[in-house]
Specification:
By secondary structure, this protein is of the alpha/beta class. The chain has a single domain, classed as Rossmann fold, CATH 3.40.50. The chain is 44% helix and 21% strand. It is built from 7 helices and 7 strands. Strand 5 and strand 6 form a beta hairpin. The longest helix is centred in the N-terminal third of the chain and has 15 residues.
């Protein structure tokens, strides 16, 4: 049974690395960086609902973490409801799958402000979001997964990373 599961995981990860990073890959990175995280909330553009739901189900099985998905909204009152629900979770990190429509830079800044009040780490898939205050960005660049860290945010969240993990990352903000 374990061998079959490992084979399925290997095939899944091999096939999905052909396109962008997956929820599973991001989940493994979060699990390695912040082992205390047990719940991962994902905020994403509405047009990606089917894909994200499918990936989150697979990621939950593979990473042994719980995933909660929320379609991103343009209206602040809708985002506020999602934020309220996520803030009620314990040991949670938030992944924001960004685009420039539903989850613009301004939306991400608004979300960051709400989660920073409770010291909830926010991770994005947009390269420069560490410069606006997310803890970490995880994205694909030339068929390689890159991890960027904002050390000021990690200090504010009272998080420390292992030297091994930091050696795999690019520090955008010290």
């Amino acid at each position: 049974m374990k061998k079959a599961l490992l084979l399925v995981i290997f095939i899944f990860l091999t096939l999905t690395t052909i396109r962008s990073q997956t929820i599973t890959q991001m989940g493994f990175i979060i699990k390695k960086a912040i082992p205390s995280i047990q719940n991962i909330a994902i905020i994403f553009p509405k047009n990606m609902h089917k894909q994200i739901a499918k990936e989150a189900k697979m990621a939950q099985i593979i990473t042994k973490r719980k995933y909660f998905i929320y379609a991103g909204e343009k209206r602040t009152n809708k985002i506020s409801t999602q934020i309220y629900n996520i803030r009620r979770l314990k040991n949670v990190a938030v992944i924001i799958i960004t685009d420039n429509d539903a989850l613009s830079v301004d939306s991400v800044k608004y979300i960051l402000g709400k989660f920073s009040e409770q010291k909830i780490p926010v991770i994005s898939n947009r390269k420069k979001d560490t410069l606006i205050g997310v803890l970490m960005t995880i994205f694909k660049n030339d068929n390689k997964i890159e991890k960027h860290i904002n050390k000021i945010v990690s200090s504010a969240l009272e998080l420390s990373f292992s030297e091994e993990f930091l050696s795999e990352c690019i520090i955008d903000v010290e």
